[in-house]
Amino acid sequence: MRLQSVIRAIYPPQCVACDAQTEDDFGLCAACWTETQFIGGLVCDKCGTPLPGEDSGEIVQCDDCMTIARPWDKGRSVLVYSGVGRRLVLGLKHGDRTDLAPTAARWMAHKFVNIPLLDPIIIPVPLHWVRLVRRRYNQSALLAQELGKVMNIAVCTDALLRPKKTNPLEGHSREARFAELTGAIMANPKRVDQIAGKTVILVDDVMTSGATLAASTEAAKGAGATNVSIVTLARVVKDA
Questions:
Q1: Cα angle for residues 194, 214, 200 (degrees, 5° grid)
Q2: Could you tell me how far CA 127 lies from the centroid of its own chain?
Q3: 90: which of 16, 75, 104, 127 is 20 to 30 A away, CA to CA?
């Protein structure tokens, strides 16, 4: 305990979004908490985007999910992808902020409090090996591993593979994103037995159009997954 006190004195807890000191490790300071748009209340059951109105427990869907085929069963997200939420995602994805993963996983785990999970396994959205070498880690796999620890659920980080190197999707239309992902993701033949008959929790850092998550879901269901729920740290929201 004495050593921990010394370490705390030298390295006091800091906000994960800025340098301000906090009471606990891996949390947000009061200012960043106020500026962070956590998604709660009434949300689309398919993609997790926030919706106007009160949450009465009724299952509802947003306009996009009523017009776009979503192969997964349920979808949830923690943050709106803007402001602090966007900064956290970009830090994890491109800024070597791997220390954000435990905090993000705890937030993501809360999204499954009222969702029944039968024989679940957690699987991350895969990266192509070229991008993995360049980035040195798959941020979705880090989130999946930490989520597995929090929820005490098995994780298979290589259940899905990305044999096709796709072009960056930023700035592309929804149609172009879906076209680019055609045939880009497949189930790992060595891991099919870990997917078949399972409820899959598919993990990614951010959802934009849903093209990557759709391709990953189709690969998982093609390998025999009975149910797929998606969870992302952040969600791009219109007019946010």
A1: 25
A2: 14
A3: 75
